[in-house]
Amino acid sequence: MRCLACATPGRRALALSLVGGGLLATEVRSQEGPAAGLSLEEQLQVCAGCHGEDGSAVESGVPSLAGQPALALTNQLIYFRERLRRNEVMTPQAQGLSDEEIQALAAHYAEQALEPPEGEPDEAMMERGRELARQHRCASCHRTDFSGHEQMPRLAHQREDYLVQAMRAYRERTRGGPDTTMVDILRNVDDAEIEALAHFLAHYERG
């Protein structure tokens, strides 16, 4: 085998480019998340570790994906993949997912039914949350039943602790992503109001 130092300049440049390309490919592969390249069924098993079977999360602070509009899920996964949203769990998980894989995952979860939370709602919190939702015109984007549509996420029956966490993150500008509308809406909303809104939306029932 000829050593690299003994090669002609042309061959040396070619060899270095191949080595560089190999290192780059290795680096790209090492940045891929655990679900990239798997079958949809295998990817769903990865997601279920946090988001629950069929997308109904049981872990505190983790959003349920079931019943979310496909476009809303697609956008969020792309934000994570492109590092427009930074999250210590989801940003690494989304690395390497193709557009087609993201769309297939989003379509699957959009078709799953999301059950309302267990337990009776607090009537005073519900009334306060209903009033705040009207005041901030939440239904104008998220629909009158808060089921979401297009890029607007479903709020009804989402985990209450996750809704609190997400609204605080918007208010404190720590959520990331290109959505500035929610930052403006929640700028002066205090913790008690956020908790009432989250309680109302998590337990929302039409009528």
UniProtKB/TrEMBL annotation:
InterPro entries the record matches: Cyt_c-like_dom (IPR009056), Cyt_c-like_dom_sf (IPR036909), Cytochrome_c4-like (IPR024167), Cytochrome_c_Oxidase_Subunit (IPR050597)
Protein name, entry field: Cytochrome c4
Pfam families per record: Cytochrom_C, Cytochrome_CBB3
Family matches, as PANTHER family: CBB3-TYPE CYTOCHROME C OXIDASE SUBUNIT FIXP, CYTOCHROME C4
Keyword annotations of the record: Electron transport, Heme, Iron, Metal-binding, Periplasm, Transport
Domain of life: Bacteria
Domain Cytochrome c: 32-113, 124-205
Cellular compartments annotated: Periplasm
